[in-house]
Design goal:
The complex is a heterodimer. By secondary structure, chain A is mainly alpha-helical. Chain A has helices at 12-48, 65-75, 86-105, 121-142, 146-177, 182-188, 202-218, 230-233, 243-268, 280-283, 300-330, 336-364, 367-392; strands at 290-293, 296-299. Chain A has a two-stranded antiparallel ribbon. In chain A, a hairpin with a 2-residue loop joins β1 and β2 (296-299). Chain A is globular, with a radius of gyration of 24 Å. By secondary structure, chain B is mainly α. Chain B has 2 domains: 2-164, Four Helix Bundle (Hemerythrin (Met), subunit A) (Up-down Bundle), CATH 1.20.120; 168-235, no CATH class. Chain B has a two-stranded antiparallel sheet with strand order 1-2. In chain B, α1 (2-22) packs parallel to α5 and α4 runs parallel beside α6. Classes of the chains: A mainly alpha, B mainly alpha. Chain A binds chain B through residues 12, 15-16, 85, 87-88, 91, 118-120, 123-124, 126-128, 130-131, 133-134, 137-138, 141-142, 144, 149, 153, 156, 160, 163, and chain B through 1, 25, 27-28, 31, 34, 38, 50-51, 53-55, 57-58, 61-62, 64-66, 68-69, 73, 79-80.
Chain lengths: 423, 235
Amino acid sequence: MACPLLAASTLSTWVIVVAFIAAALLIGLMLVSAIFSVWLERKVAGRIQDRLGPTRVGGKFGWLQTLADGVKLLAKEDFIPAVADQMLFRVGPYIALVGSFMGFLALPFGVGVVAMEMNIAVFFMLAAMSSEVFGIILIGYGSGSKWSLFGGMREAAQMVSYEIPMALCVIVPVIVAGTMNLHTIALQQTGGIWNWYIFHDPFTFAAFWTYFTCAMASCKRAPFDLAEAESELVAGFHTEYSGFRWLVIFMAEYGSMVAVSGIANVMFLGGWSLGIPVELAESLKFDFLSFTAFGRDLNLGLILGNVINVVVFIFKCWFLVFIMMWVRWTLPRLRIDQVMMTCLKYLVPIACVLLVGVSLWQLLLPAAVATILSWVIFGLSMAGLAWFAWTLKTFASAKPGDAMAGMWRMTDVPGYQGAKQPT
Amino acid sequence: MEAFLFYLIAGVTGLCAIATVVTQNIVRSATWLLFTLAGVSAIFFLLGADVVGATQLMVYVGGTLVLVVFGVMLTAQGPFITMKTSSAEWAVSATVGLILLAVLAMGIFTLGPTRLSRPDVPSPSAADKDNHPRLAQIREGLAKKALAEEKLISETKQTANLNSQPGSAPASAVIGEALLGVPAGPPHIEGVGATARPVRATYLLPFEIVSVHLLVVLIGAAYLARAKRRRGASS
């Protein structure tokens, strides 16, 4: 445990208690994230499709819709098909969930707020989350259904290929940081949004987008959700599932979405950094807030700052999850050959180029030039962001005319003479 | 606490290893194999060998995945294949397993104490920690899978010993050179009395054996997965 409040505890019973608390907190975070994300997904999908999404359960915004869904799922019969491989069918969802959960162990949420600080945290997270696929394959194979088997196979092919560019993109900021310790990498980026590694050089900037694309694919999110593909495979690998096991599969999926967003956040977007050149936990550590408890010196301001850090981190992760939803409900699903082509023909070469590029950048470029260029990148991306925000702005004065917004107008068709007036 | 966790994980790993061998359904067997390998990586994490543990997880989970997908699903003729093992095969594999067990046990019990009493091992606690899994697992008398774990763990122990030598080259470089047959790392005393001489360990022979083994596996896989030519179909 590297938690600053309880660090260096030599009593093994305390270690156990702390380990259980950390595990409970992480599971709680994962489940709350899943509940929140499902609700958000419904709302986002609704808004993008020009409808409202859930509005009734739990007040105006349908806050409790997910809980209602959960109760419904718990009340459902846990059905196992007669032809399914009983053991694999039962064990698959839990392997997926464990794989998705293990990634959280190495994720730092604030200064010292990490369940298991490792020197190779990035590697560990990728390794742990790669075991989620195995659960999916078992689900697909064990269901004894052709839909599921196809879904599982697609998932296997997709994961085996997308792991490569994903890992290569993760190495890019690792080269810049000089460490694989996520906690250290996040600490290096504190103090101002321009310190974030996404703005470090053009290669890390491109690596972020490449990584995020691969991460979406590795979470089976549209446009890469070939494993589910409702239009062809009913529900893909989880066709035969209902009730609690289906719930577990979904927990795993949303958990891994938050986990890959967490990696993206720590590696590129400064972790818990708020983007202002102030270290919250340290600057709130006023002397008058100090007190002593459990035989050690604590500081209320320090704790408050850490809590804010954790909240910032979680909300940044949720924002990345929101972007995944945005993409999912905007882009159509790719075909399986297009998915493979995207990875093998484009993402892998791009990732290789980025890797070589960032190595050369670190080795050859004089520090002054690098700093100037990184400021240029920062300015350009800020300008781009501002332009993007401007295009999103809707004008109150732009009222729709007589036709509905987005409707195909016949007056645009060449040669159209106008509707015949009824005589 | 660590001892309790170790015995728990080692026991579960051992049971999974036995299940891997005993299970007849091939995909279930692969699943048990996955659990076994995950258990071994848990032992590595328990020993504080994070890199080895994570590598074990990544390489072997991916490897088992490929095994299941390409080795089983694509070569199978029907759904849910089961393997029928004849008693002769059981006898042969049990003999091979027991011989391996005997060789490893002999190796550990004859070499182990002398290695541990080497003067250049400064931290006996770390050595004990590494010694733990080997003895415990020998007691359990696991089958072939567990024996492979033994080998890995004893290799880790050697790594730890090399690491603990102050002022030496990075352990990975030492191991890498040793794998190529270049004597590196701290010497240990071999023999007694007048014939005693310092010897540096090289791993060229084990490395080559593993390579040949991999080649055999490759040929076997190609043989199993080849397109079966029906007899008389061409004539």
